[in-house]
Description:
Elements: E1 3-6, H1 12-24, H2 31-57, H3 66-73, H4 78-96, E2 105-108, E3 114-121, E4 124-128, H5 134-146, E5 151-155, H6 165-174, E6 178-180, H7 184-193, E7 199-201, H8 206-215, E8 231-236, H9 242-253, E9 260-265, H10 270-282, H11 288-298, E10 300-303, H12 307-317, E11 321-325, E12 341-344, H13 350-353, E13 381-388, H14 391-407, H15 411-418
Parallel strand pairs: 1-10, 4-5, 4-7, 5-6, 8-9, 8-11, 9-10, 11-12
Antiparallel strand pairs: 2-3, 3-13
Amino acid sequence: xxxxxxxxxxxxxNKLIKFLDRRRVEKNNDTxxxxxxxxxxxxNKFKALLKYEKRFSKNREIKLSKYNINKSIKxxxxxxxxxxxxxxxxxxxxxxxxTKELKNIVYKDNLKxxxxxxCVPIETVGVYVPxxxxxxxxxxxxxxxxxxxxxxxxxxxxxxxxxxxxxxYAARKVGIKEIYSMGGxxxxxxxxxxxxxxxxxxPGNKFVAEAKRQLSGKVIGTExxxxxxxxxxxxxxxxxxxxxxxxxxxxxxxxxxxxxxILVTKDKKIINKVKKGINKLLETLPRKKTVISSLKKNxxxxxxxxDKQILDVINEIAPEHLELNIKNYSKYDRxxxxxxxxxxxxxTPMSAADYTVGxxxxxxTSGSSKFSSGLNINEFIKKISIVTLSKLGVExxxxxxxxxxxxxxxxxxxxxxxSRIRRN
Length: 424
């Protein structure tokens, strides 16, 4: 079911890259379908949105009334409410500490020029949340609220004609007042062309992802990372509990058939134990077919021979989630530069971080942790440079600027600077 890669020669990394690329460069064949939906909603607005909602989910109510929201929330199990409250509290506390980073920079130089760098919240953000994921709503909206986004909207689709009360309760907890029952590419199109938000965040299926890709940087902004199908990499040694390895791998495989689960280890003896453990766990798992498909298509066990190989392999994988489930994790964690999140030691299951740890679970996938971070408060902040030059300042700064503009043969720049200088 799950493939094995032995790092016994120099071609190990190349073979790994080839394996990873098969998943990462997979083409989306739904580009034309999504383009059609986006164009239709752009042109026909609400009429087109309602048409697609009726077609795909038999939904006729787009903007949810307060009455229907409260009616749905009343059906929610009090135990689930309590769990959402607990998760909200921990996520809020962790992300509140990020607000300390949002400091405006203001200074005057010796020429009395004033230079500023001002933090400004994005005005309008649309959050897309699949219908059964209240944890994802909390992760996406709490940082936005802390950043003081002025207008926060939610799009969440109905399933079998029903709203998810847990998602709606989490939305009320955060304080979201505009809630729309819509999904797929049409929901992203609506955010862009009907509600006219500045930015859209949140995970979704391949149609949602493709709609965000087509509109990003043109009509709306999206996350600075690529948040695709879930991933986990587990580093294990001879001391690691096999059951912990198995459950961590399966926990991500059950998300999606496109999820990727990788085990890295020096200990070849645990391979068969892990395989047997997966087969045993599958017997009781509701999402058995999804797990089997994911592991068969994207699963991998990598056997390594040295600490250097461990670091080279993990940094090349650049996983969304990394579990260092080994006795001496401190030996590696500061030498790993490419990972969305690192969970250290046997008491730190990544799955707990998906819910109630407090760190954000919206993380870079498909190798994008090589250049981007997980969702944080900075995703909802713009930073504006503000410059106020003095008369003396523009003369002192302007002359070398003129030299450079003339060198670059940009005469208009030269004339603009000269127009501010009294003595040319």
